C-alpha cells in the first residue's frame, strides 16, 4: 500500500499521504504509475463523456478534459515538460541547461511545448469522445495508463540521475528492466481490451517516445531529473492519444 499511496500522491491530487520513501517503495510506485494513470483517465473520461451526454459538443468536452487533467495533476507534469523543453532547447552545456530547467519562469520552448501537447490532447480526445460511452471510457483510460508508463521507463536501470539532489536521485534506476518489460506487457494487454490493435500500438508508442526522450536527456543532461519524468509522461500520453484517435 505504501507504493500505491506514493504513486497516487506523485501522479494525481488524490488526498493520500505517502509515508515511505525507501527504494523498494519507490520502485513499486513507479511500477504502479500506469494504474494511477488509468484511474485518472477513467475519471477524466467519465466527466467529459457526461458532458457530451448532457449535450455539449465533443470539442468542448475535450477542452474540459484537458483542463481537468491539469487540475488533477497540479500541472506538475506540464511544468516538467516546459522546463525540459527550455533546457534541451537551449543547446547549452549540461550544467547550464540544468540551471535553466530549475528556473521558475518559462521560456519560448516551454510555452511551445505545452501549447502543442495540450492542442494535440484536445484534438485526440475530441475524436475519442465522439465514439460510444464504453469506447470513450476504455480508450481514454488506456491512453492515460500508457502515458504514465513514461515514468516507469524513465526510472529504468542504466539511466542515472543528472543531479546529486532532487526527485531524480530518489527514483533513478529503481526499476529493473525485467520488471519494466513486464509492466509494458501488462498495460499493453489491458489496452488491447479497449482496442485490439490500437491499444497495444498506443502503449508501444508511449514507451518509444519516453525511451527516446530519456536517452536524449542522458546525452544532453547526463541523466534523469524530475522535470524529465514529467516531460516523458506528457509526451507519452500525447503519443498514446494520437495512436488511439487515428482512424
Automatic annotation (TrEMBL):
<protein>
    <recommendedName>
        <fullName>Adenosylcobinamide-GDP ribazoletransferase</fullName>
        <ecNumber>2.7.8.26</ecNumber>
    </recommendedName>
</protein>
<dbReference type="InterPro" id="IPR003805">
    <property type="entry name" value="CobS"/>
</dbReference>
<keyword id="KW-0472">Membrane</keyword>
<comment type="pathway">
    <text>Cofactor biosynthesis; adenosylcobalamin biosynthesis; adenosylcobalamin from cob(II)yrinate a,c-diamide: step 7/7.</text>
</comment>
<feature type="transmembrane region" description="Helical">
    <location>
        <begin position="51"/>
        <end position="72"/>
    </location>
</feature>
<keyword id="KW-0460">Magnesium</keyword>
<keyword id="KW-0808">Transferase</keyword>
<feature type="transmembrane region" description="Helical">
    <location>
        <begin position="28"/>
        <end position="46"/>
    </location>
</feature>
<feature type="transmembrane region" description="Helical">
    <location>
        <begin position="200"/>
        <end position="217"/>
    </location>
</feature>
<comment type="function">
    <text>Joins adenosylcobinamide-GDP and alpha-ribazole to generate adenosylcobalamin (Ado-cobalamin). Also synthesizes adenosylcobalamin 5'-phosphate from adenosylcobinamide-GDP and alpha-ribazole 5'-phosphate.</text>
</comment>
<dbReference type="Pfam" id="PF02654">
    <property type="entry name" value="CobS"/>
</dbReference>
<keyword id="KW-0812">Transmembrane</keyword>
<keyword id="KW-1133">Transmembrane helix</keyword>
<keyword id="KW-1003">Cell membrane</keyword>
<feature type="transmembrane region" description="Helical">
    <location>
        <begin position="106"/>
        <end position="129"/>
    </location>
</feature>
<keyword id="KW-0169">Cobalamin biosynthesis</keyword>
<comment type="similarity">
    <text>Belongs to the CobS family.</text>
</comment>
<feature type="transmembrane region" description="Helical">
    <location>
        <begin position="224"/>
        <end position="245"/>
    </location>
</feature>
